[in-house]
Amino acid sequence: MGAHSTLLLLADGRFPAGGHAHSGGLEAAVTAGRVRDLASLGAFLHGRLATAGLVTAAFAAAACAASRPPAEPRPATMLQPAVAVCVRHSVAELDAGLDARTPSPALRRASRAQGRALLRAGRALWTLSTVERELHQPVALGVVAAAAGLCPAEAALTAAYGTLTGPASAAVRLLGLDPYATHALVARLAEECDATATRAVAAALESTVDDLPACSAPLLDIGAEIHASWEVRLFAS
Prior knowledge:
- The protein is mostly helical.
- It has a single domain, classed as Orthogonal Bundle (Urease accessory protein UreF), CATH 1.10.4190.10.
- It has helices spanning 3-11, 26-31, 38-67, 91-100, 105-125, 137-147, 152-175, 179-188, 190-206, 218-228.
- The two termini are 33 Å apart.
- This is Urease accessory protein UreF.
- It is found in: Cytoplasm.
- Required for maturation of urease via the functional incorporation of the urease nickel metallocenter.
- Its main location: cytoplasm.
């Protein structure tokens, strides 16, 4: 399978990693009245991409770089620009670093649940470089991306894209929004998504774990804790 097809496979919401069961914090935001229509969904997605999206993309890119052979050659492309300095991290360091950036216990549980599912799917398709059975989802994504032959920039783009499409798909179910209008909204954020992935991969390849992005979104953390206490909910997180 070619690299472009593999990228599409990992970014596809139908990839069996359990992502469809999570709303990315949208269900809590809808219930709180912060997201109620297409305009407020756009604001939510913009904010999520700038915070959780950047962090997720940076850690996915760093984990991908950490899981690839050190001397593996690959020509520079539009998705993988030339980088003068490459800081290599261990997968364990990255997982601990992301754990420190996730203050909500509910979000940590959700991230690790998605990571387990992603690693299980990855092992069914490719040979992974790690024996860990539990990693945060962005770190697991980087490991699986490397096993699939993708570069750090492609892992970052997949991660950033997922922070948009998950909540957008959930919005159609939660709010009954027009799916065409919702996907048009995601399309308008494409350039911003690309820019986020570019920033993320630069940070991932040139920064230590402590210096990787640590953008916070307190309402997502608070909403996750409230959401986890509900007896009835449509999404796991």
